[in-house]
Every structure is written in structure tokens, then in C-alpha cells.
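Dear U.,

For the methods section draft, I wanted the exact inputs and outputs in one place so we can describe them consistently. I've listed the two proteins in the order they'll appear in the manuscript figures. Please don't edit the C-alpha cell lines directly; just add comments below if something needs changing.

First protein:
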Amino acid sequence: MAHDIKRISTRIGSIAESATLKVDGKAKALQAAGRPVISFAAGEPDFPTPPHIVEAALAAVKDPRNHRYTPAAGLPELREAIAAKTLRDSGLAVPASRVLVTNGGKQAVYQAFATLLDPGDEVLLPTPYWTTYPEAIRLAGGVPVDVFAGSDQGYLVTVEQLEAARTDKTKVLLFVSPSNPTGAVYSEDETRAIGEWAEEHGLWVISDEIYQNLTYDGVRAVSIVEAVPALADRTILVNGVAKTYAMTGWRLGWMVGPQDAITAAANLQSHLSSNVSNISQRAGIAALNGPQDAAEAMRVAFDRRRKLIVAELNKIPGIRTPTPQGAFYVYPDVTGLLGRTWGGVTPTTSLELADLILDQAEVAAVPGEAFGPSGFLRLSYALGDDALLEGIRRLQKLFS
């Protein structure tokens, strides 16, 4: 009977809401209600998009060419600019035909998994992971296999751990350096060892390089295809302008990979969303080809905030915060705070701890459960210096 038909598909009904957006949304709702909440939840730079990029977009709005459909795979000029950036920063020479422009890096992640996975294929997922990865894998019919590295390892998985998790169903390794949520960066030797292992076992690699230009202490995030060039035929790089250029709202990302994979993903996109907004694409050309001084100034500011937040968090007994070398997050181990009573509440998980912090200190942080095991918090330091320091002061007072 019609009234017995399931209203929502099992596949879509099983998706969890993005935990980072959920926490940030709750913080913004409290702020709108007049609460002085400081949010460390969203991975979003507090800076405006650099002026020359905005000017390029304003000019694009007035050009009738941009009022029409363009190739689903992206504007040729932008695909050329992305190919040049890929050679410059990832050490991989590709023609523009092997570039697909997407609606943000998140669409690139989804399409990469959808292009490669058949039902039951396993993906090795270094953990802690960005909250969207396992959902995108499951949507594609794949099976995420967590490979956990804790704070004692600097959140970096080893070849030995990956090998222990590999089965005859393993098809893809996800590689993320710098990492969201931890800010961890694999060294060139570590990257090469993992890449050589993946090549030896014939695995595909999806490498998320969205934070590759945000590194510190002289560290460089070496692309896995630069470390192991033989992997290029089985690697999809995903990237975008959101983090480096403070362009989260412009929704502009891309995929770079072997021709067969990019052609297949472009076919999917032609039915899914067609071309990305031409205005955003013109802005992206200005971002990649234009002056980089504004992006560098933002990176320097993130570096200053990184040092401040690590030093201040580590003053709190029970918190252990490894120093991240990339992105704009810290991922403190807070197991030392659990099982103790704070303001009449005794949290036993980082989810409960995050709720306590929001209620009693009016500070929003994302609990470790969003990224893997409990016992951690993710705090973004991509917010203003004053707000950052005030938020940490509140935590120091709460846990004194």
C-alpha cells in the first residue's frame, strides 16, 4: 500500500549531518540570541577575500559571456591555471584536460569516491579524519576502514598500520597532508614510504591537498605524486581556493587525475551540477594567477595564532596539544579532563565535554567523535586574535 512506502531512502537517511557545521550553527544561533559565544568550530578564515579577486568577480558579473552555460568541466583558462598550480605546488605536470572544476573541494571529494568505488570496496581512512570523508565513501557504496593514530604518534599513521588494515577488498587509500582536523603534516620520507607502499599493492590514492599552502616552521607539504611519481596514474588530487584565499563561500574546487578518472567524473558532474558559477571561476583565475601577498599575509597571521593557541592550551592541566605544522586547527588530547567534575558536571566523553564547555564557558569546539574516537577536541584558530585569546582564557578559567 502507498502509505507503507518508505519516505526517505536508506542511503540518504543514514547520512549524519556535518558535525562541524552543526556545532557552528548552534554557536551562531546562541550568538544571535545574545549569548557571547566564541566559536572555534568552523574551518573558515576570518579574513575577507583579497580585493583583486573580488574585483575580478565584479568585472565578470558585467561580462555577458559569464551569464551563460560554459563547459561542465570548467573554463579553459581556469583549468590551465589549476594545471600550472599543480605543477608549481604538487610537482605534477598535467594538461588542462586532466582537470575538473567542481563546486568546492567537498564536491571533488564526493566525486572522487563515486568515480572509483563499487559496492563493498574498502577505503583506508587515516583517523582522525574530516567528518565528510566516511559519509562520502558510504554514499559511493564503499566501506571506510579507520586507521587510527593518536597524539602519541603526532596523528600520523604508519605503513605498518596501513598494511595491517589492508585486505583483498582494499581499493583506495585516502591521504591528507596537512590534515583536517589535526594540522599534522607528513614528512617527505613518510609520504614517500606510504606512496611506495600504495604503489606496491596497486591501490588508488585520493589525496586531499586543500591545505597544502598553509604550512609553518619552514615545513613543506610534499605531494604524494611528487614523492612517488609512479603513483600519478592511480592518484586523484582534490583541492580548492577556499582555505588559502579566504574563499569558502565562493564554492570553487577541483580534481586532478588520470584522464579516464577525470573523464568519468566529468560525465557524472554533467548530470549532477553542470558547470560551476562562472563568476567564481573568474575569481579563481585571479586567485591562482594573481599576486600571492595577501594569501601569504593570512598564512603569517595563522602562524601567529597557532603558536598562541598551542602555548595557552598546554597551560591547562589535563590537555595535551601537539604542535600542528599545517592547516589552521589544533587537536588537543583532552582525556585528562574526562571523568573529573567541572562545575558540577562529570563528562566521560569529549562530546559531553564539548557540551559542558559551550554551556559553562560559552566556547564552541567540535568533539572528537566527529572525527573518530572520543577524547579529543578540534579548535580552529582561523578567527580573530582577540576572540581566540578570550576563548582560551575562558577554558583556562573553567579548568583551573
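Second protein (the one for the lower panel):
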Amino acid sequence: MRRTFKFAALLLIAGAGINAQPTSRPLPPIDSVRGAITVGVSDFAKVPDIGGIAARMMLLVDEPGTRRLFVNDMRGPIYAVSYDGKSVASYIDTNDSTWGHAVQSQGRERGMQSFAFHPQFGQRGTPGYGKFYTWVDVRATGPVADFRPAGGSNTHHTVLLEWSAKNAAAPTYDGGPPRELMRFEQPFANHNGGMLAFNPLARAGTPEFGLLYIGVGDGGSGGDPQNLSQNVASAFGKILRIDPLGNNAVNGKYGIPPTNPFASQPGGPLGEIYAYGTRNPQRFAWDPANGTMYMAEIGQNTVEEISTVPLGGNLGWNVWEGSFRFATRGGVDTVGARGDATMVFPVVEYQHDDPLFQRQVAATGVHVVRDNAIPSLRNTVVFGDNPSGEVFVFDADNPPRGGSAGIRRVLLKPASGTPTKLLELIRATNSAQGKASATRADLRFGAATDGRIFLLNKADGTIRVLTP
């Protein structure tokens, strides 16, 4: 019966592909007026240029144990930022030759992708004291990789590194060289690492505590040419979950949690996998009210999406792009949309040629607001569009089931000025700096434990904070 079912399913898929007409416009435009929200925004801190080029900020995190915010530049530095934003100081330059891991930061997509502090970083006497992790593209391609693609040109490697500070509260990193936990051989220059994070909702003593989530791209090029995302024997195109302090992985450098979906299936699926079928999982976060994990996924050339990420979930790529069957780099089939009950389809999605955007489009985010720091954002999921700097929300209590109808636009209002989008604020700063006007924002989000939401970018070195 199973073989018959699979054959019938293949016939249905083939039939759908024959009858469908690929399109680059499967969705209606976002309604930029109905339900739009205006929030305040103000400058919070300045991150230094490198060689006259603005900081390429990717992530801002709060480390409550040492009462500091930290922000990275993709080229290697991590800066410590005081809670009031008045002090920005170098914590470590991971690209320094001292450490032996030269960062490959050419182009827009390569560099230090993400970093994460162990939840016990500031708790002296615990196994995680002083430990933090960087997920970084490196130049050296000679060392043997733990995970390899099915081909490509070995453009660079992506490495997970563990750093161990002697004194977690020290103003600058005072530990030794990092320990390498895992290494990927990258077949192409794009779609490399994504987010790195510990679940902030996990409590000490629970099985989830201290487990590190790792976003891994599909290896790059376009369309996942090696079909890695759907291959559960490959680590590419996945969300991985590991115990960085464990040692039961194949290389003995980290642990595989027994609760991972494939942890007890030897000789095939990778035990490190938490979820699969991703293309470029740049950002994820958890809902503090119910634990739901959300992911911002960068699409091919047609659909951008925000999805939930359940344990063992298949996010669909490269069979599906958003709610639609992936057809070519330039389009999707609308026949049979969301037509596979085994897949995890987006909660919201938008298309590339929406009038709100310019030439390039890429989903980013994501942050779930449950406090009342900004009342108009309470009980929403905040995300954005990376190049344009547009910010959006949808209802966290009643998430949509795909499409763009549930998306509400968020406009940013400085103390003196009219509501606008981030890119226009950046351009105004560029003018004051005497620099050329930015063509894109490269928006990223950060958050503090007190509810503050920060906006990062790669064009003017300014960290901004949302206000009521």
C-alpha cells in the first residue's frame, strides 16, 4: 500500500506541474494603509566604522548576567553596549590573527553571521560560565569539514566556535583561542549560516536548557541545485539543535539531544536536525506566551515568509516556496497551494514585486511582543523586510494561515519628523555624516530583556530603539 500511495502522489504532483502556469505574482499586495501602526523611534547608540565603511550589524543580544548588550559587525568585532547606549566599546575582534580564524566577509552574505551567549555565561561555578559562541564564515578551506555538500567549489567554510572568558564581567574578552565545534564546507558564496540562539524560555534543570539552535542555509546558488534541504542525511537547509557542552556527536565536540527527531535513528538522518526544508533561515525567536518558535525565511525570487518551526517540521523548500509549489527561479505554481498536510506552511508571506519594495526583497525579523512597553505592538509578531527597512506585524494570538492579508505595516516616527520607514531615516543620517545616500537598509532586529526592541542596519552605524 505504501508504494502504491507514493506512486499515486507522484502522479498528482506531476499533473499539477503540467497544468500550472508559473507566476511571479501569486499574492495580493500588502495593504499599507489599513491597520497601519505608528511607533516612535530614536537613536540609541553608534557603532564604529571600519575603514570608513559603516558597521555591518547583524545581531544585538542582551546578556543580563553582566548587564550588557552586545552587537556584532560581520567583519569580526563584537561590541559591548551599556544599557543606556552611552558606552560602546570593543569586546573582541574575532578576526584578529591571534585567534587563527580569519573571517571571510566579502560580499553581503558572508562574515560573522551570528553569536550567542550561553545562558550561564554570567553565573560563576556553572558549566556554561564565560562561554559564548560565534557562527562565522572563514577563509581557511584546508581543514576537514564535518559536513560537506554534494559538489560546488568549496568557496569558504562556516565554523561554529566556542569562546571561554576567564572573567565573564571583564570589559574585554580575556580568554584563549576558541574551540571549534563543527565545520561546514560551503559549495557557493551565498546562503551560509543564519541565526544562533539559545531558547530564552528554557529554565535550568529542564531538558531544553542550554541547547543551541543553529540556522544553516541550503548551500547557495539558486533553487537548491543539490537538493540538500529535503535530504535529512545532510546538515544544509536545516535548523540544528545541539548541546555545545556535550560530546556524543560523531566528532566528539558537542552533544546531540535525545529529544531531537532523528536522534535515535542511526545510519541515515542526522541527529543534529531539529527541523528541515529551509532555504536561508536568517532569524528565529520564541513566543514567551506559548513557546512557539517563529522563523524569518528568505525566499528565492518570488515569496518571502514567516513560519512557525515545530520539532521535526518540514518547512518545504525546495518543493515549496512559501505556500506555493516552487517552479523556477522566476516563479511558483499556484495550483494546489498549501496542498501537502505534511508540510509547515507560512503564517504570513509577501511577494517580491509588491509596490512597497524596490528591486531586492528579503524577510527578516523576528520578535514576539508580549509586554506593554509599546502598547500598540503588544501581542504581535514583529518582522521586517531587510533591504527596504519596512517593519510589519501580525497578530500573535490569532496568527494568519498564509498570505499577506494579516500583515500590518509599522511606520517609524522620530521625535521631529513624519512617520516613515527605516531606509529614509538612514538616508537622513547619511546626509548628516556627509556620506552617499544608502540604497538599502539591511534591517535586523535586536531585543533587551526589559522589552526594548532595537533596529540595526549596515548603512549608517546607528542602533535605533522603538518607543511608544
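Candidate sentences for the figure legend, describing the second protein: Residues 2-19 form the longest helix (18 residues). Confidence is low (pLDDT under 50) at residues 1-19.

Thanks,
Y.
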